[in-house]
Design brief:
heterodimer; A: 181 residues; Rossmann fold; 5-stranded parallel sheet; 5 strands; B: 303 residues; mainly alpha; 14 helices; 74% helix; globular
């Protein structure tokens, strides 16, 4: 009865409801987009009313918010942080830099498309995206979770070799374990 | 035999009650904090959603056996303290498994949780956890002194170490201990600020400074255990304060009103205060709260 397909569907529905209304955000704020996070969280735009709340460590977080450009050096840390997060986990790419490099498109040490290195569930476009756009991004992610389509983590596990190849192409001195859960 | 069954049933019912009420209080505290900061804030049931989400997360972390046992220790402490604290006056279900001398037992068991957390956090090897544990134990040394002084003053004054006896004394006298020994109440109330770890005494799990301290390596189900046990423990402590100082409660509604009023003290003090440093927090507790504790003991001995 527990492994019955329909009862699993009901359990998934309840879990997705909980996941959707309780997104704990780990903001990887090395890019300039981090400046838009405080107004999103504080009294003007108040993301906590949607259940979005800051998490202190990757172990507690559900959502990795990558705010802006990533250099090859910080990409290494981001991969480490992403793999330390516990399933189910989501990634939001924030700002133009994560989509196509933005204003750093021809820089020698930043990556251009985040999607080649980590599975991104939602992109928020803009340079910088305003807090309204950020909240719209959260809402979009909530819709995807309800529909069961926010499966970036599953995709990452499935295509790990491809992601690893891309990551190792840009990170010359790879000293991390093959997969650090 | 039948009374034992009643006790066991009462413990189960009070456990569910403590979980529900404690979680609701935590959720309401988030709402109240939000309203004070001019925000809308999450709904009051947000903590239940958070708990469900944390429980549904997978956990693939292994740092050693103590890391797995740490949250269990905290849970055991919460449930154990709840078991010996009577919830209501003269109720068949809610007197729980209290016995003569349970106040002394409580003093011991309430420090067991932080110690278990210290062992669990120590094995994770995370430097933030180690700093958080050190801070937590220092803070405990701070607030335990006025708290123990208040309890000793109560024991000397009323010549008993049983919570039910103290509740009966208040019922007979028709006067709360809050008013008949005010210094004791002041010392215990100031110690409560440290016990609840709201700001300015949130030096243990400071989120931005220490990355949530001892629980920084705990996610998912571990965090769920810690969260629910802290809710149960909060309810247990509030009920203990109501029993000791505010004459207990005759029914659940009165209990909830009294505990909520008491809960507002650390919460509202916290929302308007910045964080202390460790030595400031310890010095605070060794100042006026200890002075009032001493005064309470002197008052109990000589009057």
């Amino acid at each position: 009865m527990i492994n019955d397909k329909n009862s699993q569907k009901i359990v998934d529905h309840i879990h997705n409801f909980a996941r959707k209304h309780s997104l704990w955000v780990l903001a990887y704020g090395t890019g300039c987009g981090a400046i838009e996070i405080p107004p999103t969280m504080t009294s003007r735009y108040d993301a906590e009313r949607l259940g979005v709340r800051g998490a202190a460590t990757p172990r507690q977080a559900d959502l990795l918010l990558i705010t802006g450009y990533l250099t090859t050096k910080t990409l290494k840390r981001v991969i480490r942080v992403y793999e330390q997060m516990q399933d189910p986990k989501y990634v939001i790419g924030f700002g133009s830099c994560t989509i196509n490099g933005g204003m750093y498109y021809d820089s020698y040490n930043t990556i251009n498309a985040l999607d080649r290195y980590l599975p991104v569930d939602v992109y928020i476009n803009g340079c910088m995206p305003r807090p309204e756009a950020v909240i719209a991004g959260f809402t979009k992610l909530q819709e995807l979770i309800t529909a069961g389509k926010a499966d970036g983590a599953a995709k990452y596990k499935e295509k790990l070799e491809w992601y690893r190849k891309n990551q190792k192409n840009v990170i010359p001195n790879w000293t991390m374990p093959e997969y650090n859960w | 035999m039948e009374s034992l069954l009643y006790s066991i049933l009462g413990v189960l019912v009070s456990l569910i009650l403590a979980f529900t009420v404690g979680m609701t209080y935590m959720g309401l505290s988030r709402k109240i904090t939000a309203r004070i900061q001019n925000r809308i804030g999450p709904p009051f049931y947000q903590n239940f959603i958070d708990a469900m989400k944390l429980y549904s997360k997978s956990t693939g972390i292994h740092h050693g056996v103590m890391h797995h046992l740490g949250p269990a220790f905290i849970m055991v402490t919460s449930v154990m303290s709840l078991m010996i604290i009577p919830i209501l006056n003269d109720s068949a279900f809610f007197t729980n498994m209290n016995f003569h001398g349970d106040l002394i037992f409580l003093l011991y068991i309430m420090t067991f949780g932080p110690l278990g957390m210290a062992l669990g956090a120590g094995q994770t090897g995370n430097p933030n956890s180690a700093i958080g544990v050190t801070r937590g134990l220092s803070q405990m040394v701070g607030f335990e002194i006025p708290w123990v002084m208040a309890i000793i003053a109560l024991m000397i004054r009323y010549d008993t170490s049983s919570i039910v006896d103290i509740m009966n004394i208040q019922a007979d006298a028709g006067r709360w201990i809050m008013f008949s020994s005010p210094f004791t109440f002041i010392a215990a109330l100031l110690a409560m600020l440290g016990m609840f770890r709201y700001s300015p005494f949130d030096i243990v799990g400071a989120p931005t400074e220490l990355a949530s301290g001892p629980m920084s390596e705990n996610g998912g189900k571990y965090l769920f255990t810690m969260m629910s046990s802290s809710s149960i423990f909060a309810f247990a402590k509030l009920t203990l304060y109501v029993n000791l100082f505010m004459g207990g409660a005759d029914n659940l509604l009165v209990l909830i009103i009294k505990t909520f009023a008491l809960y507002m003290v650390p919460l509202l003090y916290g929302t308007v205060s910045p964080r202390y440093r460790t030595e400031q927090a310890v010095r605070y507790f060794w100042g006026w709260p200890s002075f009032f504790g001493l005064l309470a003991i002197l008052y109990a001995v000589f009057f």
